[in-house]
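User: Can you predict the 3D structure for this chain?
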Amino acid sequence: MLPDELTDPGRDVPPLEHAVRAEEDLLTARHAVRSSAVAAGFSIVDQTKIVTAASELVRNAYIHGGGGTMTITVLRDDRGRIGLRLRVRDDGPGIADVDRAMTDGFSTGAGLGHGLGGTRRLVDEFTIDSAPGRGTTITITRWKP
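Assistant: Here is the predicted structure, written as structure tokens:
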């Protein structure tokens, strides 16, 4: 059963904001996303997908962006679907070539280079706003089937 705030379309669930400033904030952010996904009634598979996507984004904000914020918003569309939207923002150096960064195999670190492209494949909606010198904001949404 879903919480009242999710089943009553007249009730808004306020967005939750989490700072990503220290390594321990990465775990806190993942737990917050998992809790929101459970409360929204997501299956274990869909919980894992949104938590994995969140983990990649907050890790990137921490490592590459020097920290930032993650906002979790529970959505309900006009058809009654429930979704989770995550917005991860940092004030880091930005991404010089977004298209290249989205390409599998591209990495600025020691990783395999599947981060942003893999994140995009885990969610239903993905937008990225970044430019050198103005940070990065990535917004993802996963809808409950």
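The longest helix spans residues 44-63. The longest strand covers residues 68-76.
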